[in-house]
Design a protein that fits this description.
The chain is mainly β. Strands 15, 17, 18, 23, 25, 27, 32, 33, 34, 35, 37 and 38 form a 12-stranded mixed sheet that branches. Strands 14, 16, 19, 20, 21, 22 and 24 form a 7-stranded antiparallel sheet that branches. Strands 1, 6, 9, 10, 11 and 13 form a 6-stranded antiparallel sheet that branches. The radius of gyration is 23 Å and the shape is globular. It starts with 12 loop residues before the first helix and ends in an 11-residue tail after the last helix.
Length: about 550
């Protein structure tokens, strides 16, 4: 195991590529000057007015063409001082208008090609690009995770006819950090590093693909009594957990049993003799899928009908304790393999602690009235609010959106398409908004829930399931009426914060949006924060966890 270190003074390109899958670096505390965010085409009519302290047009949704400014017929989509890295480009509709990327104030762009080709070509080569995991197309959404680094400055222009909708996620580093400035071509060593990274992402979920030298593997089988709990892992001293694999027979249960059992079971983790758990979530939700067992593979989490896995890096100094709680009426047998590394306290004391919490509509100490329709913060729905220093690393979102089938028959698909729908059923379009260190305006402001995950046009059928290294949709009803499970994980593009993090996603539909229609969110958020600090989220009662699962869907 390569122990994580403080921010190194210089990086080679292959070092940046490694950050695509380096879980240990997530536990390294951010340093002053490290910042991540997203440039996107969000609707610029959403503004914050400092004089009143209020937000205006906060739910505006014309998100396809926003920009910083225009230069001739082109838009400036991104402009940022270095040193920094672009980690991810996403677009819902890249077309033939060119993307031009200028590095370090040069007059000539290092990239000048049709925006569509940015996702389809590599390194000015003739054949189409061949990195299916670094540049996946997810249910219409185009993604590229091939890093572009710069030392002094980066500007991205999109020329007329470029398409619609974009996200550009980035990290800027402290001024003393030295990065290679991208010159428009990728040399042999860098191309090999990308090929290796694509292989690692493809082998996600396979333990043999990870470095295990110096580790210990603990195997345990427990029976978790009804109404009780059982201990999966209890270690004193310093170390770090790098893998958890849990096996149950839940995948062989009926669909209805699965949905209830994986919400009745909860996983809890405490570090360093903490009183309150740093991790608490229903079992299925923690491993990134709800409701029930929905097979998928991402880089940090995944599951199939036999087991669930986690590769989040979890350091501790004085001990670690993992428990399974059973709020059901029947005992459950669980087997686990947990890989951990013995470490020194002098090392682990400096690392962040892993947190993950599940909640539904928990606004903590926010003024809820501001977030109701008519309030200036509507339609923001809270994902995570925490204080101190740390890193935001992603979310699993379970959406229960169900409606009574309209009497009118649609002319196409289930409920029609585009503006010819018999019911306005779509739950998404909600922009992600991440406020870092007390920002009055978020440094990440997205263009829609599905865009944040990495897919696109999700309001239009068909509605497929998909998975990838950093984003997944392990389940959606065939007609989208009912349960949807989606995840987005920030590994290379994790969001560091020095004092606080407040993350929201817009939710346009009310919990009850018609006489027999519901739209309920439940989120499991993954992040790191400083040792010996706690968060404000507490375990949720089993009745509240099961609320959507006890609701019978309307017959169609």
């Amino acid at each position: 195991m390569t122990q994580a270190k403080q921010e190194q003074p210089s990086y080679l390109y292959k070092d940046l590529v490694r950050r695509l899958y380096d879980f240990e670096s997530l536990a390294v505390p951010p340093q002053a000057g490290e910042k991540s965010g997203c440039f996107s085409s969000f609707d610029r009519s959403s503004v914050y007015t400092a004089e009143t302290g209020l937000y205006e047009n906060w739910g505006a949704n014309d998100d396809g063409g926003g920009f910083i400014r225009k230069e001739g017929d082109s838009i400036v989509a991104m402009e940022l001082s270095g040193p920094g890295v672009i980690w991810r480009f996403w677009s819902a509709l890249p077309e033939d208008g060119h993307i031009r990327i200028y590095i370090d104030h040069a007059d000539t762009p290092v990239i000048n090609q049709p925006f569509r080709d940015y996702f389809e070509k590599f390194n000015q080569e003739g054949p189409p690009a061949n990195f299916p995991n670094l540049s996946p197309t997810l249910s219409r959404g185009r993604n590229s995770f091939i890093p572009i680094s710069f030392q002094k400055h980066c500007k991205v222009l999109l020329d007329k006819g470029w398409g619609a909708y974009y996200h550009i996620t980035y990290t800027s580093f402290p001024s003393e950090v030295k990065l290679p400035s991208f010159d428009g071509s990728i040399d042999k060593e860098s191309a090999i590093a990308l090929a290796e990274a694509d292989r690692v992402l493809q082998q996600r979920g396979i333990d043999s693909s990870l470095n295990t030298e110096g580790s210990s593997l603990e195997n345990v089988t427990v029976s978790v009594p009804a109404g009780g709990k059982a201990v999966l892992f209890d270690k004193k001293g310093a170390g770090a957990i790098s893998m958890i694999r849990i096996r149950t027979d839940l995948g062989r249960k009926s669909e209805e049993q699965q949905r209830i059992l994986v919400r009745q079971l909860a996983i809890s983790m405490k570090w360093d003799n903490g009183v309150d758990p740093s991790v608490w979530a229903p079992l299925g939700d923690f491993f990134g899928s709800a409701p029930g067992i929905k097979p998928y593979r991402s880089l940090p989490l995944g599951m199939n009908e036999h087991e669930m896995y986690s590769y989040w890096y979890m350091p501790f100094s004085e001990g670690a304790r993992i428990e399974i709680e059973n709020d059901g009426t029947q005992p459950c047998e669980i087997s686990a393999n947990i890989r951990y590394f013995p470490l020194t306290t002098s090392y682990t004391d400096d690392l962040l602690r892993f947190h993950a919490k599940w909640h539904r509509d928990d606004y903590l100490d926010l003024d809820v009235e501001r977030f109701k329709e008519g309030g200036d913060r509507w339609p923001d729905w809270p994902l995570l609010m925490t204080k101190g220093r740390g890193r935001f690393c992603g979310v699993h979102l379970h959406v229960y959106n169900t409606w009574e089938k309209p009497d009118e028959e649609a002319e196409t698909w289930w409920y029609g398409r585009w503006d010819r729908k018999t019911i306005d059923w779509w739950w998404g379009e909600g922009d992600e908004k991440f406020f870092v260190d007390g920002e009055s305006f978020p440094s990440t402001f997205g263009t829609g829930s599905e865009d944040y995950i990495g897919y696109a046009w999700a309001a239009e059928p068909p509605f497929p399931m998909f998975d990838s290294a950093f984003a997944s949709q392990p389940f959606i009803e065939l007609d989208a009426n009912g349960h949807t499970s989606v995840s987005r994980f920030h590994i290379c593009d994790n969001i560091p914060f020095m004092n606080s993090f407040e993350g929201f996603i817009e939710k346009y539909k009310e919990n009850q949006w018609g006489p027999n229609n519901q739209c309920l969110y439940a989120s499991t958020v993954y992040w790191y924060q400083e040792r010996c600090t706690s968060d404000d989220y507490r375990p949720v009662s089993v009745n509240d966890r099961l609320v959507t699962l006890n609701t019978r869907r309307h017959k169609r």
